[in-house]
């Protein structure tokens, strides 16, 4: 087993998912968890699998991963979210790489992420293969990107593995809508802080293109009704992001109005 891999898990109120995630990580040299002060049994469950459990205030998707990277002791890092699971095929493929000595030639490894949603695996559209670079040399990689979407980059060659990382992203449509609302607000605020100006062309055409790309060009229709739901909400997310950017930049907040006082 490759004992020089530290599997780094970021979590927060994930008792429904965390055990499955941890079970898939027991083959590594160490498991490190950073929890953002969960109010459920997440920390209790994590301590059944590792004593490297830390709690820290939420620093964002990027900041939290860079924090846990610094806490890891191993020379190789594998980032894992609490709602993800390393498939047995991916585990065996990673172990094979490290057993063969091939890792000397690479700074990182990327692999597809496969989402389970609405009772099936989503194998088309924008959600697949959703390739992620998650396994990398600690001294040659870092986490960047734009909130809420973190992205790992490395200095050196990257090899693509074929087996997937499983992702149990949403419990259902209501959960997806809530997450979509939160993520689009973060994205709109980020664009505004970067100086990106609202344009009507983005609001009108980008959502339409996103749906066409997801449902037709990437054959999301082959995933049945769940594929239609995924394509629809992908387009809605783009629309909401730019609509919120317009709201931030063009809408003047209403002044505070005092409540009328009752007559004495």
The termini sit apart by 79 Å
Return residue spans where pLDDT drops below 50 for at least 5 consecutive residues.
Answer: none
Number of helices: 7
- If you average the pLDDT, what whole number results? 95
- Main β-sheet, spatial strand arrangement: 3-2-1-4-9-6-12
What is the total tally of β strands?
13
Looking at the overall shape, the CATH architecture of the largest domain is Alpha-Beta Complex
Overall structural class, as computed from helix and strand content, comes to alpha/beta
Gyration radius (Cα, Å) is: 21 Å
Task: Describe the protein.
The structure is a single chain. Helix content is 39%, strand content 23%. It is α/β, with parallel strands linked by helices and 264 residues long. It has two domains: 5-167, Spore Coat Polysaccharide Biosynthesis Protein SpsA, Chain A; 173-250, no CATH class. The strands form three sheets. A seven-stranded mixed β-sheet has the order 3-2-1-4-9-6-12. Strands 5-13-7-8 form a four-stranded mixed β-sheet. Strand 10 (141-146) and strand 11 form a beta hairpin. Helix 5 packs parallel to helix 7 and helix 6 (200-217) runs antiparallel to helix 7 (224-250). The longest helix is centred in the last third of the chain and has 27 residues, at 224-250. The radius of gyration is 21 Å and the shape is globular. 31% of the residues are buried.
């Amino acid at each position: 087993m490759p004992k020089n891999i530290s599997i780094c898990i970021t979590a927060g109120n994930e008792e429904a998912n965390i055990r499955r995630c941890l079970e898939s990580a027991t083959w590594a040299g160490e498991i490190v968890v950073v929890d953002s002060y969960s109010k459920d049994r997440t920390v209790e469950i994590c301590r059944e699998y590792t004593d490297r459990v830390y709690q820290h205030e939420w620093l964002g998707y990027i900041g939290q991963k860079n924090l846990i990277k610094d806490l890891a002791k191993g020379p190789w890092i594998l980032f894992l979210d609490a709602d993800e699971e390393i498939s047995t095929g991916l585990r065996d493929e990673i172990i094979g790489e490290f057993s063969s000595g091939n890792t000397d030639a690479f700074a990182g490894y990327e692999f597809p992420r496969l989402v389970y949603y609405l009772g099936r695996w989503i194998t088309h559209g924008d959600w697949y293969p959703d390739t992620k670079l998650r396994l990398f040399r600690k001294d040659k990689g870092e986490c960047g990107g734009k909130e809420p979407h973190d992205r790992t980059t490395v200095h050196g060659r990257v090899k693509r593995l074929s087996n997937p990382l499983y992702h149990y992203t949403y419990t259902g449509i209501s959960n997806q809508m809530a997450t979509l609302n939160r993520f689009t607000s973060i994205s709109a605020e980020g664009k505004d802080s970067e100086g990106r100006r609202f344009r009507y062309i983005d609001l009108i055409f980008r959502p339409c293109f996103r749906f066409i790309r997801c449902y037709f060009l990437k054959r999301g229709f082959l995933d049945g009704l769940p594929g239609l739901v995924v394509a629809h909400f992908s387009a809605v997310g783009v629309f909401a992001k730019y609509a919120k950017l317009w709201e931030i930049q063009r809408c003047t907040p209403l002044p505070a109005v005092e409540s009328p006082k009752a007559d004495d």
